[in-house]
Amino acid sequence: MAATEDNLLKSIISHAKEYGFVFPSSEIYDGLSAVYDYGQNGAELKNNIKEYWWKFMTMLHDNIVGIDSAIFMHPTIWKASGHVDAFNDPMVDNKDSKKRYRADVLVEDAISKMQEKIDKEVEKAAKRFENFDKAMFVSTNARVLEYQKKIDEANARLKDAISNGNMEALKQLIVDLEITDPFSGTRNWTDVRQFNLMFSTEMGSVADDASKIYLRPETAQGIFVNFLNVQKTGRMKIPFGIAQIGKAFRNEIVARQFIFRMREFEQMEMQFFVKPGDEMRWYEFWKEKRLNWHQALGLGNNNYRFHTHLNLAHYANAACDIQFNFPMGFKELEGIHSRTDFDLKSHEKYSCKKLQYFDAEDNQNYIPYVVETSVGLDRMFLSVLSAAYQEEKLEDGTDRVVLRIPAALAPNKVAVLPLMKKDGLPEKAMEIFNHLKFDFRCFYEEKDAIGKRYRRQDAIGTPYCVTVDHQTLQDNTVTLRNRDTMKQDRIHTEQLKQIIQESVSLSSLLKKI
Ligand code: GAP
């Protein structure tokens, strides 16, 4: 991560804490690694993101319904899904620093460093020569060619080691690339071992193997095992979808970058059940739909891109990510996967229960194929927060930090502020607050100078401030201040609801998709 990107992420983390969005979990006990709590503003923003997703999925699509399945599930589910045997990351420890790393990430980081060396050579040469031809330079410079050869070799060996589950080969690659531990500076590595990412616990009072259960690492399996329940009770006809929002847990080896990679997080997943053979059409359909859903937020269309998976998981016949331009660069925000009939077929085998659909049109039974859309709620939160966070220098020479959160997602929609704490202004402001609070999440504040209060609302992303002054007592007009433009308009209190509603309502955002 470049220094400026690193600084931006640090600024966002400290802003999120200072203004009640995200706190480190168990902070008074020095925190719990990769676990976070959402504060008073964070919880509102998170709920609004959930509502945006839930309404889009279940209200705008008449063939999608939502469920809420339990976190604890029968342990055989995770055997059938492949998580018990294959939901692993390769792990390696440095014997001197006692720090633990993901072996593949260590290699990827070493490869990135080699790439940086190439970039530096190119940069140096570009400064030296006029009419610099980058392609020509890269294909002829001996040092660059040597680095490129090393990169290609390392990439090929990494891919080979991972796809064959060959941990010795991965260890040898770490040795050959002379990777050192950033803390101890030594190359004293343990063997590379597979590490299962699922958390487990015991159910019931007897702690033996039979009662071992897992905290779900994805919400999707709760949908698969309820597929027939929903299909039958909802009289659903293929194609149809089941949506769910809920917690998932992964014992990530390297959990870093704030709420990007957590051990306890939330997913918003939808499994779309289709006729076998139709899955590619629906895969393309959902890629487009999901990208549109993201882009409607107005965080900048250039901040999103697709990344197609070349190495497919054993259950998929097509997969891609929607990546977002986070402060750390473009990274996965949402996964869209064509999961074939792998999960339902496997649950049929392990449960010995038929999980088939009778297609009345074709007069045949089949196991449907599944196209999945899966977005991390916390990553969505980080994408909104990082795109919204702006440090601005104003015309009068002062600074402000403003969160340009899409108005429909903002924690508070309007702040009602009496200009002074006297002359009946607080009472009048409270009257307006009580009038607006049934339609919008409102905030009331009377302490400090009005400029300071505006800054505080900017910092938590409140789209509108309503200021009540002496003129309000005369003619029932107020000033309505816009967060983004800072423009203030004098309007009648009777107009307030309609003006605010037009720009903060979720339905107007949903209509843009
Ligand atoms: N059911 C498919 C599935 O779980 P995934 O790519 O492993 O696929 C889907 O996860 C999404 O969940 C990711 O795109 C990401 O947004 C989110 N996610 C995964 N692991 C996460 C973690 N440790 N912390 C935060 N979000 C995570």
What descriptors fit this protein?
single chain, 513 residues, alpha+beta, BirA Bifunctional Protein, domain 2, Rossmann fold, seven-stranded mixed β-sheet, five-stranded mixed β-sheet, 18 helices, 23 strands, 24% strand, binds glycyl-adenosine-5'-phosphate
What does this structure look like?
This protein has 18 helices and 23 strands. It is α+β, with helices and mostly antiparallel strands. Strand 4 and strand 5 form a beta hairpin. The chain is globular and about 80 Å long. The model has no long low-confidence stretch (mean pLDDT 94). The site of glycyl-adenosine-5'-phosphate (GAP) has 19 residues, from strand 10, strand 13, strand 16 and helix 13.
CATH T-level fold name of the domain at 1-68 and 215-393: BirA Bifunctional Protein, domain 2
Q: Look at the helices and sheets and give the structural class.
A: alpha+beta
Largest sheet: 7 strands, mixed
* Estimated radius of gyration: 27 Å
So what's the overall shape? globular
Strand content: 15-25%
Ligand names: glycyl-adenosine-5'-phosphate
- Characterize the quaternary organization of these chains: single chain
Low-confidence blocks of residues: none
Physical arrangement of strands within the biggest beta sheet:
3-9-10-16-13-12-11
Distance between the termini: 33 Å
Mean pLDDT across the residues is 94
Individual helix count: 18
Could you give me the name of the CATH homologous superfamily of the domain at 1-68 and 215-393? Bira Bifunctional Protein, Domain 2
What percentage of residues falls in helices of 4 or more residues? 40-55%
Known CATH architecture of the domain at 1-68 and 215-393: 2-Layer Sandwich
Number of distinct beta strands: 23
